[in-house]
Design brief:
single chain, Dehydroquinate synthase-like, alpha domain, Rossmann fold, alpha/beta, 12 strands
């Protein structure tokens, strides 16, 4: 082995929405509400379908899935002679590598393991190039299957590698952090960062499957664990008021990693992501609502050279800022903004925002969501319903950034 150190939903199509309007509104009515059966959390494996073209795939959620990963990978092999290349980080491999490798041996799958560093500083083109060279050295071919086994950085980097290596090979995501399980591993967005901004080089490349095992989170440190929960809270704000209520009422259970409650949070977050991606794979309309909190969040990350905030922490501050913008601009009432801010703070503490306000504002123009010079913000109308606005006054944005800088 090589080790390099270095149930179908009734979804309306996005075309049915006036997604090009600067005040495009996404509402829960665009998808069929989840049934009580859909929402029940248990230890059995839940299967959530993502309907993308040309091929749909399934996200499986269940405790112990890692031990059966080899069996599931065999189902999606491009051919009987395919080899598996696992891309992971040293830390993930130390904790969970043997469990995955045992499942591959049990399934009689030939495999090799490539390692990369995790953390945002490692999410760069040179890391992808090194991995590609390692694949060539290991004689990978177009029938190879890549497995992204790690957090969001590993998943995004390995997914991008799969999109471009030999013009595209299949990839399976096995996410190992909360943020990767509920968000990054689903939907096919892959890419790396540039000095000028986050995820500016990338591609849409849907996985063949996603295997989510909540048991893997047992070795995740508290800060990383909390950071990922902000992405779940985001899902509640934009699309699922029941999920928001659950997180608002049960922070002690969720932060205490109560297995039943946590699995429900993860599965319901995945359903939101799957529904939205199924309706709008390439972010031409509805999918933009998933960027709630990310416009200012990404600017915070870039302004601090990706060294001060975990991704979810930056998104948390971005959600608080977006709530303030919505309140000042009249998109939502004071109660909604206060609920979002209070619920976000429940899952802290958050690192202080100590960077210069102008530095953050200057980064907004480089955001991928900026079109023709207009910065697009996802703003809450009420819990479970958001709008996209491109005409927010600069003074309102500045006030929001100053506000989060003044939070203790």
């Amino acid at each position: 082995m090589v080790s390099e150190a270095k149930e179908p939903l009734d979804i309306r199509g996005a075309g049915a929405l006036d997604s090009k309007s600067p005040d495009f509104v996404a509402t829960p009515g665009d998808i069929r509400p989840l049934s009580l059966h859909d929402r029940l959390s248990s230890n059995h494996v839940q299967k959530i379908r993502v309907r993308t073209k040309p091929n749909a795939y399934v996200v499986q959620v269940g405790a112990g899935l890692l031990r059966r990963a080899g069996r599931e990978l065999r189902r999606v092999l491009p051919s009987s002679g395919s080899r598996v290349f696992v891309i992971t980080s040293p830390n993930v491999r130390r904790h969970w590598g043997e469990a995955l490798e045992k499942s591959l041996r049990d399934a009689r799958l030939p495999y090799e393991v490539l390692e990369m560093h995790d953390g945002e500083p490692a999410k760069r083109l040179h890391a992808v190039e090194q991995l590609a060279e390692s694949l060539v050295d290991a004689k990978a071919d177009r029938k190879s299957l890549l497995v992204a086994f790690g957090g969001g950085v590993v998943g995004d980097s390995a997914g991008f590698l799969a999109a471009i290596f030999m013009r595209g090979v299949p990839v399976v995501q096995i996410p190992t952090t909360v943020v990767a399980q509920v968000d990054a591993s689903i939907g096919g967005k892959t890419g790396v960062n540039l000095r000028g901004g986050k995820n500016l080089v990338g591609s849409f490349h849907q996985p063949s499957a996603v295997l989510v095992d909540p048991d893997i989170l047992a070795t995740l440190d508290d800060r990383e664990f909390r950071s990922g929960l902000f992405e779940s809270l985001k899902c509640g704000v934009i699309r699922d008021s029941h999920l928001f209520d659950l997180m608002e009422r049960n922070p002690k259970k969720i932060l205490g990693r109560d297995s039943r409650t946590l699995q429900r949070v993860i599965a319901d977050s995945i359903r939101v992501k799957a529904d939205v991606v199924s309706a709008d794979e390439k972010e031409s309309g509805l999918r933009r609502i998933l960027n709630f909190g990310h416009t200012i969040g990404h600017a915070l990350e870039a302004a601090t050279d990706y060294s001060q905030f975990l991704h979810g922490e930056a998104v948390a501050w971005g959600m608080i800022a977006a709530a303030a913008i919505a309140r000042e601009s009249g998109a939502c009432n004071a109660e909604t903004a206060e609920r979002i801010t209070a619920a976000t703070r429940l899952y802290g503490p958050l690192p202080r925002v100590s960077c210069d306000v102008q530095s953050v504002l200057g980064r907004l123009g480089a955001d991928k969501k900026t079109v023709a010079g207009a910065v697009h913000f996802v703003l809450p109308r009420k819990i479970g319903k958001v709008k996209i606005s491109s005409d927010v006054p600069p003074s309102t944005v500045r006030n929001a950034v100053e506000l989060i800088g003044n939070h203790a």
